[in-house]
Write a structure and sequence with these properties.
It is built from 4 helices and 6 strands. The protein is an alpha+beta fold. It has one domain (4-164).
């Protein structure tokens, strides 16, 4: 059984009116241990630390290529040290909204805007985290840019969620701090 499942995109919450229109949407869900710290800062820190090396390498390549054509690279979002996580989360979240069970982060660039909804659905024995990606293409450059990104996105997001799940399982069992 796969631990990360593709699910219908969640567009009824904070993401509903976050973009002028949605040109691309997908969503993935993962079950995490009940009681996992799912605040944005914790998710960002644990997710970054657990991120597979191949995903970090792919994102670094994307950053170099994006920077070469004048797009935002993402480097400005990385923490400089252990104490810098709050700043890093705030830098990632210029479109930040929260309602207690959903957080909406996003970024606007000249070619496209994206939002990511992180929806927490608590259960008795686990907590379901649903990550929905919403993208608005501003023009043909955004559409062209997203062709290769879309291919990688379908591998990267599930890999990151699986790594996050594994790390929270270690934390829950006392194997990681």
């Amino acid at each position: 059984m796969r631990t990360v499942q593709e699910v219908p995109p969640y567009q009824n919450g904070l993401g509903r009116d976050a973009l002028p229109r949605v040109d691309f949407a997908d969503a993935f869900a993962v079950e995490l241990p009940a009681g996992s710290d799912l605040r944005l800062a914790s998710l960002a820190k644990v997710g970054y630390e657990a991120c597979p090396a191949w995903v970090k390498a792919a994102m670094a390549v994307r950053g170099v290529l994006a920077g070469a054509v004048g797009l935002k690279t993402g480097r400005e979002f990385l923490p400089k040290d252990e104490a810098d996580w709050q700043r890093a989360v705030e830098a990632l979240s210029p479109q930040f909204s929260a309602d207690g069970r959903e957080v909406l982060i996003g970024l606007d660039d000249w070619h496209l805007d994206f939002r990511a909804s992180l929806l927490v659905q608590p259960g008795e024995t686990s907590t379901r985290l649903v990550v929905t990606t919403l993208v608005y293409f501003k023009h043909w450059v955004g559409r062209a840019y997203f062709v290769p990104v879309r291919i990688g996105h379908r591998w990267v997001v599930p890999a990151m969620l699986e790594a996050l799940r594994r790390r929270f399982m270690q934390i829950d069992s006392g194997g990681c701090s």
